[in-house]
Amino acid sequence: MSTLKHDWFTQQVPGKPMGRYAHIVTVRVTDSYSLFQTDGELNTARMNSGVALTDLITRLSIFKRKQSTPERLVGRELLRRYGLISGEEAAEKKEVGADGLPICDYNVRFCTQCPDCIAYGFAIGDAGSEKSKVITDTAYSLTSYDESHEAFTLNAPYEDGTMTRHGEVTSRINEQDHVTPQVIFPSVITTRDLTENLFLYVLNNVQRAKRYGAQTTRTGRMQNHVIAIILADGEIFSNLLFTQTLYDSLKAEGKINPPDPVDPSAVIGAAQSIIPALLKEDGVVIDQLITGQALEALLAEVSAISAQEKSLKDLLKRAFNDSQAYHQAWIAKASKKK
Ligand SMILES: [Zn+2]
Predict the structure, then answer these.
(1) CA distances from 307 to 75, 311, 338 (A)
(2) Would residue 255 count as lying in a domain?
(3) CA of 322 to the centre of ligand 1 (A)
(4) Domain span at residue 280?
(5) Do 68 and 107 meet the contact criterion of CB atoms below 8 Å apart?
(6) How far does the centroid of ligand 1 lie from the alpha carbon of residue 25, in Å?
(7) Is residue 157 situated within a structural domain?
(8) pLDDT digit string (tens) for 235-291?
(9) Out of 75, 99, 150, 336, which residue is the most buried by the measure of CB atoms under 10 Å away?
(10) Looking at the domain assignment, is residue 2 inside a domain?
(11) Structural domain total, the chain
């Protein structure tokens, strides 16, 4: 990683918070119809449209787990694919699979030592818990709910393609609100006290994750544009402030014209230009701000690692060594004490 400050990262994940925050600033854009919902309804929140603009609008929201879960699953799939965790299900008194690898069964029994367990955390009843070192918060749509969703009917026809059988119309018709394509969700992903390897593991997951929300085979595609990486000694601006500030700026430039979708490249450009001012307001020490060409070079390097079996395996292995070292130092000890 030529551009990233290697020395800035801790050599080991510390047992106590050490104030090393690496932020991945993204603009998430829906690529197909999507569902971010609870109990069949899209999640929304009512709020000021901007910081300067104070008219109220309703925005779509994506809760934090709906962002982090798909990213975790992408990484876990790679850990299994390249032989670092077992694909076996959790079974009683069995911690290692027939393949000799630790069994890590998501939300059933976590192995407490793989990069996923250590970076994203886990909770396993009395067996302990590990706080997530990847912090995400609810993301809000740039544009209002009214122009960012569409209601349509999902048909489940009979085999002959009709909706009737024996003269009766099927009740298998559901009306469902969907988030439309090209809706933009600005979102900051914060990692705390991770080693460089574990940070790259998380970044690779963000770059590779392509499906979010409740899914069918044709819905839920999303593109994550990483627009800045910031190394700092504290937390930075929230998703909401980021979204509202972007809204002010794009509105002033005449780039928000409902019901038309907003051009993602305009959003990315505006985001890059407002970040320095937002960071100034945060009052934290910025050790490195990577944007523009330097960022593109860094992301290209990560993509190149991720596109080659050997280099990807090496990265996963290095991340695994780091997570295992943390397990040895802080988790194995604690469970022995009991
Ligand atoms: Zn695990």
Answers:
(1) 14, 8, 43
(2) yes
(3) 13
(4) 12-337
(5) no
(6) 26
(7) yes
(8) 999 999 999 999 999 999 999 999 999 999 999 999 999 999 999 999 999 999 999
(9) 75
(10) no
(11) 1
